[in-house]
Write a structure and sequence with these properties.
With about 400 residues, the protein is of the alpha+beta class. It has 12 helices and 19 strands. It binds adenosine-5-diphosphoribose and P-hydroxybenzoic acid. The site of adenosine-5-diphosphoribose has 28 residues, from α1 and α9. InterPro entries: FAD-bd (IPR002938), FAD/NAD-bd_sf (IPR036188), HB_mOase (IPR012733), RIFMO-like (IPR050641). This is 4-hydroxybenzoate 3-monooxygenase.
């Protein structure tokens, strides 16, 4: 069987790409290692830049997002218990972000793709790529014990950090950059009312905390924890107490406790692989880069990659113009590094690294104090938070 584009991975990158190609009449098959329930159950971040919202609207998968998404025009930064407001809307000429869980967005994208007759092969095992340097690439996989082969024109590896796509690129062509942070985020989902009308990013002597939300009745909160911590170390009580402490007495009294229905610890890392293409293979989203979650750029970066890649594939299939494909990596990576910079900067300013009593620690604190005291500083933060254009 021949298909113009084989997409590996049905996370947000792969699903969005498949939709963007479909609305221009270009067929694709998505090969996904996990089952649908697993993909739809993964808990991820929940802040959409307007560029991402725009892509959802463009493909017409926006009904539930429009109805349930919450627009936010600012964030709070709390330092040692004192809250400061960053009025992003005023600082960026009216821009906002939308609170809508990636989990919900993924469910919407899968349902719509299947409703339009889209081909998503769940539980596709042993996916392997052949001939990426030739003009006849192909992808093999096993489904229900039977081996299949798809020949194609292009392969999009939207298969996340642990995927097979990046590993198929010749090692000597790939340069990787990495920073691992000495802490993780313990995150909980709970049935409770949000602490405030907007997100609170808190920097405190005991570490970072974040109060986020999914709706008026569900909150998503995080606290910075040492990398070695296990989920068993964190009872619900310990979590709520720690969150309150890091918010300081004023905001602590606003924390509504509720039933915790999900709790997990995620490590923080920055990672970039260059280039994002080789021959007929193109990487998008977490397959090519990871950001720490401070600033919620992961999903939004996947969306901008896929925007560039879909435009390039459309130009090739509709106008036989290959320039976009040749320039994809360069174009995508320029925006990737800006989001990497912002996520690293937010992470450094707001977390405790254990070296506060050193030159680096003092400079990080001065940076935070400066940003919060200067319109230029706040504008820089706001402009990046709402998302750079693509
Ligand atoms: N074969 C088939 N599918 C695979 C393989 C493989 N060898 N390896 C991984 N996958 C699938 C995963 O099961 C997953 O469903 O690829 C998908 C990758 O999805 P994500 O990890 O969600 O990555 P991406 O779509 O790029 O989404 C961007 O933004 O907020 C961040 O990390 C967060 O998921 C988020 C990401
Ligand atoms: C979330 O709601 O999960 C979230 C929000 C903002 C972040 C990270 C995660 O920076």
């Amino acid at each position: 069987m021949h298909v113009p584009v084989v997409i590996i991975g049905s996370g947000p990158s792969g699903l969005l790409l498949s939709h963007l190609l479909h609305i221009r009449g270009i067929a694709s098959v998505i090969l996904e290692r996990k089952n649908r329930q697993h993909v739809e159950g993964r808990i991820r971040a929940g802040v959409l830049e307007m560029g991402t919202v725009g892509l959802m609207r463009k493909i017409g998968v926006d009904q539930r997002m429009n109805a349930e998404g919450i627009l936010h025009g600012g964030i709070y930064i709390s330092v040692d218990g004192k809250r400061h407001h960053i009025n992003m809307k005023a600082l960026t000429g009216g821009q906002t972000v939308m609170i809508y869980g990636q989990t919900e967005l993924t469910k919407d994208l899968i349902a719509a793709r299947l409703a339009h007759g889209g081909d998503i092969v769940f539980e596709a095992e042993d996916v392997s790529l052949q001939g990426i340097e030739s003009d006849k690439p192909s992808v093999r996989y096993v489904k229900d014990g039977a081996e299949h082969q798809l020949s194609c024109d292009y392969i999009a590896a939207c298969d996340g950090y642990h995927g097979v796509g990046r590993r198929t690129m010749p090692e000597n062509r790939l340069k990787t950059f990495e920073r691992v942070y000495p802490f993780g985020w313990l995150g909980v989902l709970a049935k409770a009312k949000p602490v405030a009308d907007e997100l609170i990013y808190a920097s405190h002597a005991r570490g970072f905390a974040l109060c986020s939300m999914r709706s008026e009745t569900v909150v998503r909160h995080y606290v910075q924890v040492p990398s070695e911590d296990k989920i068993e170390d964190w009872s619900d009580d310990r979590f709520w107490n720690e969150l309150r402490t890091r918010l300081g007495p004023d905001d602590a009294s606003l924390v509504n406790e509720g039933e915790v229905f999900e709790k997990s610890i995620a490590p923080l890392r920055s990672f970039v692989a260059e280039p994002m293409s080789h021959g007929r293979l193109f990487l998008a989203g977490d397959a090519a880069h990871i950001v720490p979650p401070t600033g919620a750029k992961g999903l939004n970066l996947a969306a901008s990659d896929v925007h560039y890649l879909s435009e390039a594939l459309i130009a090739k299939f509709c106008e036989n113009d290959e320039r976009g494909l040749a320039q994809y990596s360069q174009k995508a990576i320029a925006r990737v590094w800006k989001a990497e910079r912002f996520s690293w900067w937010m992470t450094s300013m707001l977390h405790r690294f254990g070296d506060e009593d050193s030159f680096d620690g003092r400079v990080r604190r001065a940076e935070l104090d400066y940003v919060l005291s200067s319109d230029a500083g706040k504008t820089t933060l706001a402009e990046n938070y709402v998302g750079l254009p693509f």
